[in-house]
Amino acid sequence: MSLSLPHASASLAHLPDPPGPEKRPSLRHLLAFRRDPLGDFQRMSARWGDVVMFHLANRRAYLLTHPDLVRDVLVTHHRNFIKSLALQRARVLLGNGLLTSEGEFHLRQRRLAQPAFHKEKIAAMAAAMVRHADRTARSWRPGMELDVGREMTRMALDIAGDTLMGADVGGEAEEINRSLTDSLALFDRLHNPFAPLLDRLPVPGTLRMKRARRQLDATIYRAIDLRRRSGEDRDDLLGLLLAARDEEGDGGGMTDLQLRDELLTLFLAGHETTANALAWTWHLLAQNPGAEARLHDELHTVLAGRAPGAEDYPALPYTRAVLAESMRLYPPAWTIGREPLEDFEARGYRIRAGSIVLVSPWLVHRDARWWSEPLEFRPERWLSDAEASHPRYAYFPFGGGPRKCIGEGFAWMEGVLALATLAGRWRLRPVPGAAPTPQPRITLRAIGVRMRVEAV
What we know:
Blueprint: H1 9-12, H2 27-35, H3 37-48, E1 51-56, E2 59-64, H4 67-76, E3 81-83, H5 85-89, H6 91-94, H7 103-113, H8 119-124, H9 126-139, E4 145-147, H10 148-165, H11 173-184, H12 195-198, H13 204-230, H14 237-243, H15 256-287, H16 289-303, H17 317-329, E5 336-340, E6 344-346, E7 349-351, E8 356-359, H18 361-364, H19 408-423, E9 426-430, E10 437-440, E11 444-447, E12 450-455
Parallel strand pairs: 2-8
Antiparallel strand pairs: 1-2, 3-5, 4-12, 5-8, 6-7, 9-12, 10-11
Helix pairs in contact: 2-3, 9-10, 9-19, 10-11, 10-15, 11-13, 13-15, 15-17, 15-19
Region (Disordered): 1-25
Keywords: Heme, Iron, Metal-binding, Monooxygenase, Oxidoreductase
């Protein structure tokens, strides 16, 4: 049974609350969640099923883990939901960009940005994606030891800077990555009841976040200013956004502040998610030599040693399947949060307005009801008709509905071409004693993926 249409709160007051670990806020459970949110989600879902109620600090929260419920929250009844508290707090960093804006303003900004992500525009950016991946590949040497998460982040930052703003951020990559890491620390305070006060006090964490925002603002505004003064008509995202006009609305374009918010949002989301997906992909390939061999066979057959291009993307189905399976096991967006505007019903339970509703790719992607041998890395799941064998929202690494990630096509192109470029020359082998660990922040970061380089 899927969710019913949202009803007025009074009509649902008779419904019971879902089961869960406690009926009131509990410091014990809050600490357990902060220590190990992935494990806590798994334990709650295993014990209480597809609809679980718990508390995050002083707020009710609900974990929904059936594909039908995911679909209804993200798609069918999306008008009953706004972004979660986490993304509302993200406005401190991201402003009113696509990830955080709501209502008519969000629709207008999405209309303005959408043309930049048409297939032909993404294909035009493929050369830049491959150029930076090739530069990374050329910097590696046999026997070299890499922090793969850091290496993929550096490459993805270069690609994002080039394709989004036409800017070479290579010299600033370390500083930008440090600024992004410091900025994302604000999410660690999400469930701290004193967070609003801490945001105003000159404590070390707050000072680091403010310094990080100044650094990121300087990078973004410098790119906008240089482009406006140059008058160049370039086909990167900044050029397309500068030229965009809201033909369905007021006919206007974006202010510098709106450009800043959209560019920073896409810069953060675009590089962080791709870097994490690729880092986990290298880890999984090293653990599965059969899949790794099949990947190299495809690259040898299709590319025969040359660099890939946008035209090769359709001819690399196994490379794409490797990336898809990696994002099934380690989805960059490990949880997606919403806040209901009205009470609604989920499987006979009352979900209250103003609460936190969470749907988790991490859980649904690993559920044995939808996936045979769910913890096994099997890229062949994504070949031929295998993709159609599971429910529609058993796999949703880019979300769904009207708020689905606008850059999904860009991410697939970048991930496949970057992987093909790097794996065409190198294999990566785990460093003995390395212990890769998923770090669930706003994305699922790959920590401790240390590997050695081997020539193909």
